[in-house]
TrEMBL record:
Belongs to the ubiquitin family. SUMO subfamily. This is Ubiquitin-like domain-containing protein. The keyword Cell wall biogenesis/degradation does not apply. Residues 1-53 form the Ubiquitin-like domain. The keyword Aminoacyl-tRNA synthetase does not apply. Keywords: Isopeptide bond, Ubl conjugation pathway. Gene3D superfamilies: Phosphatidylinositol 3-kinase Catalytic Subunit, Chain A, domain 1. InterPro entries: Rad60/SUMO-like_dom, Ubiquitin-like_dom, Ubiquitin-like_domsf. It comes from Sphaeramia orbicularis. The gene is sumo2a.
Length: 56
């Protein structure tokens, strides 16, 4: 998680502005690769937090 935080700071985002998912499930700050049953070459999806908008 620390590595992600450092990378996000380099590109100008804070950890509060992004969300991580693995296999469609949110990744929590305390999750480990073992807990998530991750294997080599697995991919973590990163999304920028969206706020605002309106209902239709």
């Amino acid at each position: 998680y620390k590595a992600y935080n450092e990378k996000m700071l380099k590109i100008g985002l804070s950890m509060r502005q992004i969300r991580f998912r693995f296999d469609g499930q949110p990744i929590n700050e305390t999750d480990t690769p073992s807990q998530l049953e991750m294997e080599d070459e697995d991919t973590i999806d990163v999304f920028q937090q969206q706020t605002g908008g309106s209902s239709l």
